Amino acid sequence: MTGYRADLPQLKPGLFVSDGGMETTLIFHEGVELPHFASFVLLGSEEGRARLRAYYERYLAIARRHGRGLILDSPTWRANPDWGAKLGYDAAGLKRINEASIALLDELRQAWETAQTPIVVAGVIGPRGDGYAEGRMSATEAEDYHAPQIASFAQTAADMVAAYTLNYVEEAIGIARAARARAMPCSISFTVETDGKLIGGRSLRDAVETVDRETDAAPAYYMINCAHPAHFEQALSADAPWINRLLGVKANASTKSHAELDESDTLDSGDPIDLGRRYRRLRETYPGLRILGGCCGTDDRHVAAICEACA
To answer: Residue 164 in contact with residue 124, Cβ under 8 Å?
Structure first.
């Protein structure tokens, strides 16, 4: 049974929080080996599932403490055919993993949800390739490629699918179409370079408007992730209609470029207090931003600071 698939609560006034950088937290803070940056491999053992539960419970506690809703994103950013093949998973194995990820999150929802803290379960989709390198699929190819993962989520208690770290519009269009075909609400999150543009030079505005035009506005909303606020603030405009489609931010802790982060073997956790202040300024200028979390380098300290700054 799905709780909110027909009526996503984050579309209504009120703040929702999300988690931080799952993979960077597990690798750099907890010493967990995640081959190919794939956190879904932890679902294969009870020890791994316990580690994931403990990770999520930090954010569940933050949301409950602040009386906010929470988006629970599944650990399936790499659970697609290309990355799965590198890790020894065939189509059947990926289907089991995607379904198991939602089962875990639904268990947490049943244990933690309150009237003040609604919990939305999202099946996460990542890019087919490297989030830091522009992809080359057509929209039709992207729809076919991502359809099996979305279909897996549609058969579970997931309320929606959430696509993160997309850097070209064709993949976003394909995901949105595949989700609509399976009656799954979806969010589309783009990542940008230090100039506030997608890696191919397209503006955020153009990306959002193009996806909406090509899909009849199929996405429930858009987000930005895997970039520092200093990188994308310049791309936003309070008086532009497209900004009303942008409801969330999951920013990096570091001001470094994607190229610099890719080459670094240490974690730049930035300054949680400063990040919280930047989110508060974003909220003051763009009050429609109501889904707040973190990406690479962030952890529960950053999300707690964001909640306190945006109280």
So the answer is: yes
Please name the residues in contact with 101: beta carbons below 8 A apart, sequence gap of 6 or more. Answer: 40, 43, 74, 75, 76, 79, 123
Please say whether the beta carbons of 87 and 41 come within 8 A.
Answer: yes
**Is the model's pLDDT at 133 over the cut of 80?**
no
Phi and psi torsions of 149, nearest 5°: -65, -40
Question: What would the pLDDT profile of 61-98 be if each residue is shown by its tens digit?
Answer: 999 999 999 999 999 999 999 999 999 999 999 999 99
Residue 268 has pLDDT above 80, yes or no: yes
DSSP-derived pairing of the beta strands 69-73 and 186-190: unpaired
Place of tokens 């945006």: 310
pLDDT tens by residue, 161-205:
999 999 999 999 999 999 999 999 999 999 999 999 999 999 999
Rounded to whole angstroms, the Cα distance separating 238 from 241 reads: 8
- The arithmetic mean of pLDDT across residues 215-244, rounded, is 96
CA 83 to chain centre: 18
Smallest CA-to-CA distance from 228 within 267, 275, 284, 260 is with: 275
Asked if 56 and 25 count as a contact pair (C-beta separation under 8 A), the reply is no
Instruction: Provide the percentage of residues in the chain whose pLDDT is more than 90.
Output: 91
Beta partners for 120? 71
